[in-house]
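Standup notes
- HV: blocked on the assembly model, inputs below
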Amino acid sequence: MQKTSVQELKFIELERKIKRENWRRMWFRFKKSKLSILGLSMILVLLFMAVFADYVAPYPSHAGLHIAFKNAYKPPSLEYILGTDMYGRDVFSRIIFGFRYAFMMIGLVLSLVAPTGVILGLLAGYYRGTVIEAIIVRLSDIFISLPPLVLALSIASILEPNIFNAMMAVSLMWWPWYVKLTYSMTVSLRNEPFILAAESQGASTLHILFKELLPIQLGTILTKVTLDAGWIILIGAAISFVGLGAQPPTPELGTMVSEYSKYLPEYWWMSLGPAAGIILIILAFNLLGDGVRDVFAGE
Amino acid sequence: MLLEINDLHVYYKSYWYTLKVLNGVWLRLDRGERIGVIGESGSGKTTLLKSILKILPQNGMIPRGEIRYDGKDILKLSGNELSKIRRKEIGMIFQDPMAALNPVFKIKDQLYDILKYKMMIEGHNPSSKELYEEASKIFSDVRLPDPDRVLESYPFQLSGGMRQRVMIAMALISAEKLLLADEPTTNLDVTIQDQILKLIHRLVMQKNLSTILVSHALGMVYQMTDRVYVLYAGDIMEEARTRELFSHPKHPYTQLLVASTPRLSSVGVGEGIKGKLPDYRNPPAGCRFAPRCPYVMDKCINTKPGKIQVNREHVVSCYLYD
Amino acid sequence: MQDDVILNVLNLKKYFNTTEGVVRAVDGVSFNVEYGETLALVGESGSGKTTTGHVIMGFYPPDDGKIIYKGIYDLSSPMKKRTLELKRDIQIVFQDPGTSLNPKRMVKDIITLPLLVHRTIEKKRIYEKVAELLEYVGLSEEFMFKYPHELGGGEKQLVAIARALAPQPSFIILDESTSALDVSSQAKVLNTLVKIQKELRLTYLLITHDLGVVRNISQRVMIMYLGKIYEEAPTEEFFKSPMHPYTQMLLSSIPTLSEDDEKIKPKEIESVGEIPSAVKPPTGCRFHTRCPFAKPVCSQQDPPDIIANSGHIVRCWLYE
């Protein structure tokens, strides 16, 4: 067995250096836009708050069932930044826990939906004109035609209405969009000379799918993922608002808006807080999405 | 003199950077003369033609320079005067007829429009019968068979050669003095290209038009022009009478370019030119060819060489002849 | 089968179904490619030259005919069914430098792929091998870590050539490999192709429309028009005495650069007409609609093979 030569090591070192340089360049492109930096820092702050909610929130115990009527209906003050609700819980603390649910929803849905959709889309596009394509494309058409609220309703009636089931419903209607996206891109790339070249040289199908086709689409997919994050929050909140998602006293932002909206307009601060939280997180992801798009578009 | 361009600079501005494309281009064109501009892709040929008509894209700007056409300064003309010139005096054949023709209108509609505007400038409002007769006349000029069918067609229904003939017909309507041809045969087959070139040649001679032919195909320029300018990365490198230029090229770039062209009569091509066009965001300060030039000297890198007259009709921009 | 023939194509046919009807892209083409030569397959758009190359590569199966490689391998099978050995031995360099390399893969990764697939080299020496290949096509080792968008057109094609050379093939199809390049970068690519052919004893099938390129690197020429081959000759002979009217029209249409070149061009013929659609190709000799010398028989019957000289075959009724 030959040892790795000095020459070879030199190249490996050089490659590392250049890859670092490329990352730096990508970061530079991202950095150029102040708004995407703002989006990223907002998300990092929100994420930090969500993860360490138990320490960040002034009243962690107020997240769930907690009743202290003597503190109920207090408007915003130094003690309770965003006021208290009808049970005397600190709205601000509950919002922070709400962020935790928001990120959990995003994580759950996207980690299910994006890989599934992308893989199926790649397969359908690569095996164009075969049964595989037909099955995947038809199936995704069926799921895309189901309205999420109706789906959530039926799932909730079969199982129980909770946040997890609501997210399953969202995932079921969401994955086909990733199929559509990758499928159409794959179809247009499928017969490009560089794919034909790789195939004719004997590259495996796995290589073609994940090393040739996927990297080109990655930018578009990641942009969609960040932009979708905001939408998932919105739909999750909508499902919870109509009572099919998270149930009180879960401190989910949509549930909170729904619960507190009964006390409008006298106790406006109750619903204002969670509503602003939803807007904030959606805004952050949209700003980030713009930045991600710039990073990949600039090449 | 019909057209004179001096020290023309054209920049393209984008959000992130400025592309400094044309870098002080100079050029003159006499009445009835046919000149060629040779340059490889990305050298700024199309930009040059578009600035003559002032049809640069939105982000294009001309920070410096002068374009004198028929005694008028094109860059200072009002929109109205300019559009008169575009409709009546200067015609342009574009590289890609598919992009220049509107895909959703019939040839008829597009052709009649141009005809009508031109006739209206002449103070005459044509009837549709007149338009039809004029169109048929022009089509027979460009040897388009079956004019009725072509008029009723959409661009995609025509073959590449026919589309190019339609383009030429349209350009000729407005070209009473000057014809600009931007790679007029790029996507055509050789046999069709030959037909189109002969057609342009015949029409130009017949109407005694001044012509600027812009192309990367040296052979085409050799056969179609009296005088040639060599454009590289937005700079004119050399100017000479056509035969003189191709038999005795002076600028290293021209020499390498001519040597790189495959011949029919002999085997073997030059070694080509190493490297690639400079980045227009940050072009070389001196001679723009310096980074690729085999004879590069210190002064080439920092200062741009001026025009050097090597003989009566041969100008080169290179320190080797200083 | 002769020993010196590497590729034997027999009555190859490839039709495509389109909305306008059946396009007879390649309609009965036969030829042999000899070991170590460059055979040029010349034609204009719609002649079927690229389709012929792609069928040989296996991008789609032929509708009829045989393709025999090295006397024993049958290339009529689609690419997926070919053995790894065949995939190693036959390579292609595409036309458009913009699409022949994956924009998201480093030059190093592009060239490494065939090395890894065919285990030409052990993993520990892979970078050295890539550097060696790059140097061989005239690119310095810094190119290894560049992405295609950082390269010029000519450099991209050189990388594509290095990729094709990586698995040590014996046969390379050059599919208009220099057509999209500027002359200055084309020269470099052409010279590199000639050099490596000599050194590695490669066989080229050069698919092109550019007779200037043909003159410079090929030993034999075939002229294709609307799916059929009409003339076949050694390059020298071809330029000295082109016989088929189409060939003459093609030659006379080339804009040349000097008096010497001008002399080569046949004078008595001028380009007329357009290439007919391959959906309804003309009967008999497919060129008769544009041929100034056409006789009645030309539109009725396929012209016979006429051997004009050793290796010079023309299919034309004029020489009957």
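- HV (later): unblocked. Residues 111 and 170 of chain B are 6 Å apart (CA to CA). Chain B has two domains: 3-89+175-273, 103-173.
- Next: hand off to the docking folks.
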